[in-house]
Amino acid sequence: MIVAERKPFDEIKEMTKGFKKVLNVGCGGCTSICMAGGQREVGLLNEELKNAWAQEKASIQIDAFTIERQCNADFFKELDQIVKPYEAILSMACGAGVQFVADRYPNKPVFPALNTVFVGVDRDLGWFEENCRTCRECVLGETAGVCPLTRCAKSLFNGPCGGTSREGNCEVSKDTPCAWFEIYKRLKEQNRLENILKVKPAREWRNQTRGTLIQEAFKTRYAK
Amino acid sequence: MKSGSRLERTLEAGHFAFTGELGPPQGANVEAVRKKASYLKGIVDAVNITDNQTAVVRMSSWGAGLIAIQEGLEPNYQMVCRDRNRIAMQSDILGAYAHGIRNMLCLSGDHQQFGNHPLTKGVFDIDSIQLINMVKGMRDDKKFLNGDEIDGAPQIFIGAAANPFAEPFEWRVHRLAKKVSAGADFIQTQCIYDMNMFREWMKQANDMGLTEKVHILAGITPLKSGGMARYMAKNVSGIIIPDEIIERIVQAKKAAEEGIKICVEQIEELKEMKGVHGIHLMAIEWEHRVPEIAERAKLVPRPQV
Asked: How close, in Å, is residue B141 to chain A by CA atoms?
């Protein structure tokens, strides 16, 4: 899932400055699951904003509306109907959702209330870890399910570097396991070390321009 | 001859090589480079010019390398993968070669987090092994990484680093083998303090036939004080200093003298080790002590090749 966290309150407050009527739009997708931008978090943020602006005697109306997902037009029908009177929109979706909202209402200022942090997993309740950098050329089959791009601090494809600690941790942090130590350990257990014996050639970076994907079955449908 | 560099000629003639290290200044202080070079001239076969070591901005490695050439020293141009993509790397290699640089050491580089711009964007477009392979392709196939022909291919003697002292230990010799198959002509190791571990790694390298394909220069860093020994042992990942070495330095009346004594003993021992073809002395901010160490370890006079 996409993991996000709320921006510092003062930064969000500053975004809403000067507007009389703001709509805070929550997302029921990933940011709701990671407890950063769902219905509950929209409510909490609005309370904080109202209180803060009330203390400064500023008159501002901040309403809440959460849709199922901010990354698909099918979920915008109700929002389309109510959005008109608002001068600005706060979005509690990931960066993709914020842009989708901004594209849909190009005349309105749209502000992100969250920072999108990574594609990751739940390590435990409220504890997330990054596991994928969306490189578009997955090597996990060779590396025993450990991503060298994401989990090695130097993104080495022929690791490990010389900085692996005695405990098998990365030189950048004693709390971070060395990805290549893990890769080595697992491949050895699986008797597949030959996977990493050969030099892995320089990579072709395929994610340096914006991606668009049209599935094979839909190619004729979107043909220009 | 691949490059005809002095270092290559020394090693190919079967001499025991001796390389030093010169860390460029944090500025355009040419005199600082000349001064450090003056201690090493005539003492070493080549001098590594570090590339923004510990991710702290310094005069570029090739820039300081050109000053070294003016001073009569042969540079070993260090290049890390942290700061440049493949376009910049290939371009810099051509520029450096055009100005007379003939040796290179290909490294991943210390992570930017350790340096003085910790939140810069780390490049790591290619890794150190891919860099070795790229330089070999430029030299031997006269082709850029994308396969395009090079108009005037750089004839570089290709170096790589190896660390026998980092986990997973049993994988380290295989990593050496990968560097050799990628095209490394010579290896400079991480600084050695645990001679038993190093001997074991060398045995593995000998057994795998790697020492017939690559020249291994054993890395040595003299310890200046008990504090330095303790700090390195505790804080630098991938360096192992046995307790007895730390004790010797800590107990010594003159720690620096003891450090040099240990260093000379190590060099004597390494000279006798099968497969070790030279010493790489990393006397960090201690360049002025190199002549004395070289003298006492009988590494001078250097052979004329």
From this structure: 16
Q: Where are the beta strands (DSSP E) in chain B?
A: 17-22, 46-49, 75-80, 103-107, 157-162, 186-191, 215-220, 276-281
Determine the topology of domain B6-225+259-296 in CATH: TIM Barrel (3.20.20)
pLDDT in tens, B90-118: 999 999 999 999 999 999 999 999 999 99
Ranges of chain B whose pLDDT falls below 70:
none
Q: What is the ipTM of this complex?
A: 0.95
Q: How far is A155 from chain B (nearest CA, A)?
A: 7
pLDDT for res A118: 98
Look up the CATH architecture of domain A2-118.
3-Layer(aba) Sandwich (3.40)
Spatial separation of the C-alpha atoms in residues A37 and B285, rounded to whole Å: 53
pLDDT of A156 reads 98
Distance from the A197 Cα atom to the nearest Cα atom in chain B, whole angstroms: 7
Whether residue B237 and residue A171 make contact (CB cut-off 8 A), yes or no, is: yes
**Nearest-CA distance from B84 to chain A in Å?**
13
Question: Which pLDDT does position A186 carry in this prediction?
Answer: 98
What are the residue boundaries of the structural domains of chain A, listed by start?
Answer: 2-118, 133-196
Nearest CA in chain A to B168: A181
| CB-nearest partner of B238 from A164, A197, A198 | A164
Preferred mutation among A181, A199, A200, A203 to probe B, highest tally of B CBs within 10 A: A199
**Of the candidates A179, A194, A178, which has an alpha carbon nearest to the alpha carbon of residue A145?**
A179
Q: What is the mean pLDDT of chain B?
A: 97
Whether B194 has its CB under 8 Å from any CB of chain A: the answer is no
* pLDDT tens profile A158-206: 999 999 999 999 999 989 999 999 999 999 999 999 999 999 999 999 9
Size of interface A-B (CB pairs under 8 A): 97
**Rounded (5°) CA angle A202-A208-A211:** 125
- For residue A10, report the phi and psi dihedrals to the nearest 5 degrees: -60, -35
Coil, helix or strand at residue B171: helix
- From residue B172, alpha-carbon distances to B167, B180, B253 in Å are 8, 13, 37
Helix (H, G, I), strand (E, B) or coil at B213: coil
pLDDT in tens, B157-187: 999 999 999 999 999 999 999 999 999 999 9
Say if B99 is an interface residue toward chain A (CB within 8 Å).
Answer: no
**Residues of A in Cβ contact (< 8 Å) with B81:** 154
Query: How large a percentage of chain B has pLDDT more than 90?
Result: 98
* Helices B86-98, B61-70: inter-axial angle, 10-degree rounding: 10
pLDDT score, position A82? 98
**In angstroms, rounded to a whole number, what is the distance separating the alpha carbons of residues B194 and B13?**
29
